[in-house]
Amino acid sequence: MHRAGPSAGREAGSLTFQALTHTDSRFANNGNQFSGEPPDQALCVGNGFTFEMVNQVVTVYSGIGAQLVPEATINEFYGLAPNITRTDPPSFGPFVFDPVCRYDAQLQRWFVVNTALEQDPVTGEFTGVTRLYIAVSATSDPTGVFASYTINTTRGDATDRNCPCFDDFPHIGADANGFYITTNRFSLFGPNFNGAQIFAASKQRLAAAAAGNGRLPQVVSMNPGPSTGIRRSRFSRRPCRRVGNSSAVSTSCPRWTTTRSRKSKSPSGRWPTPLPSIQPTQASA
Known about the structure:
The chain has one domain (7-280). The strands form 5 sheets. A 5-stranded antiparallel sheet has the order 7-8-9-10-18. A 4-stranded antiparallel sheet has the order 3-4-5-6. The protein has helices at residues 22-31, 74-77, 203-210; strands spanning 7-8, 15-16, 41-46, 49-54, 57-62, 72-73, 95-104, 109-119, 126-137, 146-152, 165-174, 178-187, 193-202, 220-222, 237-238, 256-258, 264-265, 278-280. It has 3 helices and 18 strands.
């Protein structure tokens, strides 16, 4: 697809170029896509690359805006069947959405997370099975191989009501030791909001496993509950993003913020038993 070249931005030292659009998302993979609104974007930059997802399409640019790989669907990125194959009759694969990404300068690796809802392959109706998909690059080059993994979020945990549930609006962060995902957990077929959810895993072991050097780390998950003095659960706790290379304790991220309050609060309670449900999927390129 034609791309306009980079141009000088309005501000000194800035750079602008046309990146992914709704057209790219809708017509990727021969048009076997849905029309997604609003245009959810994941954008991360590092090591001379710009990695972008918009709704259900992904590509990589150079630091000056040259497109380095053709657009691919997010389902292709994770090695999944298309979310819709427009044959007669149509068939359906997982509906993957809410992209978020991060370049980790300490490890020089790329991390990507999406929410996914399984669809009946014949009817397209949601089956009730839900997942988080996690992709980690094997090297510092995002045009190369990614290893991808899933966490099954269907049943939630003991604090959740009216599951099957799904983990919406993921955000990611990291410090010198850990990789963190926060989500908002909802009932898939009911009205319940079950609170924010926090996942944590060893960042080093995730990166090592993606490169084929070791086992996947254990992942722990918790519902931190409502903020102090607030009776209802809060939305969108966001993990901090440390960029330092030190492994000292002072570089950890002990505090969590909420988009509904100016205050911060450490997670309450204890981390529960590590989840057994992180599983490798097909490697993607």
